Amino acid sequence: MEPKDYPYVFLNSPTGGYLGLFFGSISFVLAAWGGVQSPLNVAVVAGATLAGIALWAISVINLLNTDVALKLGPVGLWTPKLGFLPWKHIQAVLDSVATGKAGSFEILIIKNRQTQKQLEVITLSGLSGPKEKISQVLQQYKRS
């Protein structure tokens, strides 16, 4: 049975939205600069403008989406995609994905305990809240 309260709740982080607005703005500046430098280069100006519009649109959506992305509790976890799942039915694994020179990012992989089928992958950088606590919490709940 799903608990009413979860000790650890993680929301969607607005950081990606702010970064998108920043890079979208840079795209608009590049489009304006390209138009001034060479008015004949319409494709570059149009491409940079479209990229800026797309980045801004995605960013605004990300900034408005402050819904709960993950809840952790002693009897299980909850995600918008999967709903509530008790620990006895799932396995939650923290992993790191290398991105080359840029470094790596942490992910939480949720698997069916019996079949080992991957049910969902959550990127921790997309969450707000005490991310450093996730590893400790998972270890604590695995023991109980």
Write the layout of secondary structure elements.
Layout: E1 8-12, H1 15-37, H2 42-64, E2 68-73, E3 76-79, E4 83-86, E5 90-98, E6 104-112, E7 118-123, E8 127-128, H3 132-143
Antiparallel strand pairs: 1-2, 1-8, 2-3, 3-4, 5-6, 6-7
Give a quick summary of the entry:
The chain is α+β, with helices and mostly antiparallel strands.
What does this structure look like?
The chain is an alpha+beta fold and 144 residues long. It has two domains: 8-12 and 68-143; 15-64. Helices cover 40% and strands 31% of the residues. The chain has helices spanning 15-37, 42-64, 132-143, and strands spanning 8-12, 68-73, 76-79, 83-86, 90-98, 104-112, 118-123, 127-128. The longest helix is centred in the N-terminal third of the chain and has 23 residues, at 15-37. It is elongated, with a radius of gyration of 20 Å.
Helix and strand sequence? EHHEEEEEEEH
**Radius of gyration over alpha carbons?**
20 Å
Mean pLDDT across every amino acid position = 82
Structural class: alpha+beta
The count of helical stretches stands at 3
Read across the widest sheet, the strand sequence of neighbours is 4-3-2-1-8
As residue ranges, the low-confidence spans are none
Largest sheet: 5 strands, antiparallel
Helix content: 40-55%
Number of strands: 8
Overall geometry comes to elongated
Task: Note the beta-strand portion.
Answer: 25-35%
Number of domains: 2
Distance between the termini: 17 Å
